[in-house]
Amino acid sequence: MYRYLVTTMRTPAFQPSVVEQHYAFLDQLRVQGKLELAGPFTDKSGGAYLIKAASLEEAQSLAFTDPVHVSGSSLVTVYEWNAV
Q1: Which domain range does residue 51 map to?
Q2: What is the per-residue DSSP string for 17-56?
Q3: 70 falls in which pLDDT band (50, 70, 90)?
Q4: Which of 3, 27, 38, 40 is the most exposed place for a label (fewest CB within 10 A)?
Q5: CA 6, CA 79: separation in Å to the nearest integer?
Q6: Which residue has the higher pLDDT, 10 or 84?
Q7: Is the per-residue pLDDT at 15 higher than 90?
Q8: Could you give the CA distance from residue 35 to residue 21 in angstroms, rounded to a whole number?
């Protein structure tokens, strides 16, 4: 498994109502053992989370089902991260 940093940057179309669904999505990843860390940025511009996946494609597939991405509320980007 590799680690992937997922950033979620709010767009002008941000919908506050999607936040609850986003947190439920993160909880589901946590239960599956795929989420290591998550949290919002203090400036309210978005947030980030660290997931484990077998490949970049799998990580993108997971991240792009995040309700903040699907709704257009946030721009979601996935980076392979060699954190130590």
Answers
A1: 2-80
A2: GGHHHHHHHHHHHHHTT-EEEEEE-TTSSEEEEEEEESSH
A3: very high
A4: 27
A5: 6
A6: 10
A7: yes
A8: 16
